[in-house]
Design a protein that fits this description.
This protein is an alpha/beta fold. It is built from ten helices and 13 strands. It has a single domain (24-309), classed as Ribonuclease Z/Hydroxyacylglutathione hydrolase-like (Metallo-beta-lactamase, Chain A). The longest helix has 21 residues, at 2-22. A hairpin with a 6-residue loop joins strand 9 (206-209) and strand 10 (216-220). It is globular, with a radius of gyration of 20 Å. The chain has a seven-stranded mixed beta sheet with strand order 4-1-2-3-5-6-7. Strands 8-9-10-11-12-13 form a six-stranded mixed beta sheet.
Length: 310
């Protein structure tokens, strides 16, 4: 009888190990390539036009992180966004001159130490930049594409709608610095969202499956920019995670339905509503933004809960 009980327990352990081995995602981490201070109206819209508050505001927020999310997947190392380039605080020619340069200077203040480059941050958690196989960009603003030059081995995914903004008139006025995006040697993939009959991601009706296994789904969340996207991470045994870029800068404000002051307000409200509806399907959904100080603790608690469950 004791032998039978031992065999059952042993088989259960084997089955549990097999299930664990079938999970494609091994690890989720966050690193920050320095900090940024922005205007309070950047974080939450007051209803006034962007140009007005950008030129008149005298206040700055406390330093906020510039987050890069790192996912260790069976198909390779994945980054969601790539942070800010340290050259932006050391090279006087990084930003445009004239009126555009003045607007950039009033929009954000960056602080990036030598050890806060993407390469050094990745090494700090045990990875080398050449191990990164896939990069997903929420959008093409310079504080999300800053590490591209360090990632020549990776396939870079961006929405086709976002890429099209580079061909519009004066893209630099909208935060797109082409000279830091279209770098030689990079491998780009423009993503279009295909109709998807999947009620588990309603109200989203179109998505792009990064690896075809359902673990990483890209969904359109326009508003901050016309082509902004988010990435839904799903895996058995862990809380789902939605990486939202700059759809919000503060989860408490997001929960209250208050949107940032940068972007197209209607699009921001519609995308915020879509994510809120997704939360109804996944009550334990973890929402991680690029510049939310609460993001790292939220991810930490989700990982701890996973360890306890395991």
């Amino acid at each position: 009888m004791i032998w039978i009980v031992w065999m059952i327990r042993h088989l259960c352990r084997i089955i549990q190990t097999m299930k664990s081995d079938m999970r494609p995602i091994r690890r989720v981490s966050v690193v920050s390539t320095g900090t940024v201070r922005i205007r309070p109206q950047h974080v939450e819209s007051t209803g006034s036009p962007l140009v007005w508050w950008l030129l008149t505001s005298r206040k700055w927020t406390p330093p906020r992180p510039i987050n890069v999310y790192v996912i260790e997947h069976d198909r390779g190392l994945v980054l969601f966004d790539t942070g800010q380039d340290r050259d932006s605080v050391t090279d006087p020619h990084y930003f445009p001159k004239g009126l555009s340069g003045h607007l950039y200077a009033r929009l954000a203040r960056f602080a990036i130490r030598p050890g806060e480059t993407l390469t050094e941050r990745l090494r700090g958690i045990g990875y080398e930049p050449n191990q990164v196989s896939t990069v997903v960009l929420s959008h093409l603003h310079q504080d999300h594409i800053g590490g591209l030059a360090e990632l020549s081995n990776a396939q870079i995914l961006v929405s086709a709608r976002e890429w099209a903004e580079l061909d519009t008139q004066c893209p630099e006025v909208r935060g797109l610095l082409e000279q830091h995006i279209k770098l030689p040697g990079l491998r780009w993939t423009q993503v279009s969202f295909a109709p998807l009959e999947d009620t588990t991601i309603a109200p989203f009706t179109a998505a792009h499956d990064v690896f075809g296994d359902g673990s990483l789904l890209l969904v359109p969340t326009p508003g901050h920019t016309p082509g902004s996207l988010s990435m839904l991470l799903r895996q058995e045994g862990m809380a789902p995670i939605l990486f939202v870029g700059d759809l919000t800068y503060d989860l408490e404000k997001f929960t209250a339905g208050r949107v940032p002051g940068v972007g197209e307000r209607r699009g921001l409200l519609e995308s915020t509503h879509a994510v809120t509806e997704l939360q109804r399907i996944y009550p334990d959904l973890v929402i991680l933004a690029a510049h939310d100080p609460a993001a790292a603790p939220l991810l930490g608690r989700a990982i701890e809960a996973l360890k306890v469950a395991s």
